[in-house]
């Protein structure tokens, strides 16, 4: 140690490392700020919908759409839930279609993706081409309608809504790409141990594909939850219960028709909460999905290195 108290020959601080740490901290905080602003931008529209749904129609006309209600009112929800039996039945139909369709569709998509990436499957390229071809061209609405109503005879049957959503070429391609990242040596080692193809798929491939299954399952579930078009085509109004999205669409359409009819007859219908009803139906339709999503989100960040390659 010299007279100034500095260590001679010792380890001296590295200014470059200090600058590197400071740069990483700045970049990290910049990322936090950008992501935070993006999250707020994503959250604001839903807060706007939620706040407007609890606002009176007259307040919406006067102040526009606001996050915080100027005049609190639940009149829109009272109209939406005017017939609790119908909306509860619609909820049960949609939940049933979503649960059953997601389970079956996820199983079929996973099996198809696994089979198409197997190197020892002879016709994998030809079948993959036919699946990809459907993403470019389709038969159209009229053949699809005739297939469901005339050949399959599924008019006014919930299967007409369930079956079309079971398979998606995009999801099959996604699953195929994910399963391809799993080493084929795992399958070969399991075959050496005497395991069959279905056993390998159930006990090895599926546990290692949890992130892909969660992502694809969420896509399928959202598709069934938001389904209204096929229900409108194949489920007649004579049925007791139809999917939730179609029921809410009919509620808003009926209110809009009443208001337009009253306007054409010079009758005041200012009490019909058309705008707030649209927001209330959006909250009713998206609320369960928002509550369910956090339970699935954790699987998106889970790794795929489950298990080991037998050496």
TrEMBL record:
> Domain ABC transmembrane type-1: where?
91-296
Main subcellular location of this protein, as a coarse class: membrane
Record's bilayer topology term: Multi-pass membrane protein
* UniProt-listed Pfam families: BPD_transp_1
TM stretches of this protein: 29-51, 86-109, 129-152, 158-179, 200-225, 279-296
Task: List keywords of the entry alphabetically.
Answer: Cell membrane, Membrane, Transmembrane, Transmembrane helix, Transport
Location(s) in or outside the cell: Cell membrane
- Family of the protein in this entry: Belongs to the binding-protein-dependent transport system permease family.
- What name has this protein been given in UniProt? Carbohydrate ABC transporter permease
């Amino acid at each position: 140690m010299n007279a100034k108290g500095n260590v001679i020959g010792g380890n001296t601080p590295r200014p470059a490392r200090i600058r590197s740490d400071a740069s990483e901290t700045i970049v990290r905080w910049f990322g936090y700020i950008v992501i935070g602003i993006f999250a707020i931008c994503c959250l604001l529209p839903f807060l706007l919908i939620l706040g407007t749904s609890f606002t009176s129609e007259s307040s919406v006309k006067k102040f526009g759409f606001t996050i915080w209600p100027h005049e609190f009112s639940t009149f829109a929800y009272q109209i939406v839930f005017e017939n609790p039996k119908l909306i509860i039945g619609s909820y049960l139909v949609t939940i049933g279609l979503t649960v059953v369709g997601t389970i079956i569709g996820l199983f079929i998509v996973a099996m198809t993706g696994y089979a198409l990436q197997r190197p020892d499957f002879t016709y994998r390229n030809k079948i993959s081409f036919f699946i990809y071809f459907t993403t470019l061209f389709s038969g159209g609405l009229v053949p699809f309608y005739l297939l469901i109503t005339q050949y399959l005879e599924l008019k006014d049957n919930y299967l007409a809504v369930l079956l079309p959503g079971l398979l998606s070429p995009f999801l099959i391609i996604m699953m195929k790409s994910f399963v391809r990242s799993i080493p084929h040596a795992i399958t070969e080692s399991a075959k050496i141990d005497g395991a069959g193809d279905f056993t390998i798929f159930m006990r090895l491939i599926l546990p290692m594909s949890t992130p892909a299954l969660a992502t694809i399952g969420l896509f399928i579930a959202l598709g069934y939850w938001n389904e209204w078009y096929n229900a409108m085509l194949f489920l007649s109004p004579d049925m007791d219960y139809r999917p939730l999205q179609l029921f809410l669409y009919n509620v808003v359409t009926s209110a809009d028709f009443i208001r337009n009819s009253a306007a054409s007859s010079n009758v005041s219908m200012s009490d019909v909460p058309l705008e707030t009803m649209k927001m209330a139906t959006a909250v009713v339709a998206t609320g369960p999905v928002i509550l369910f999503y956090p339970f699935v989100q954790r699987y998106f960040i889970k790794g795929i290195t489950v298990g080991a390659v037998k050496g």
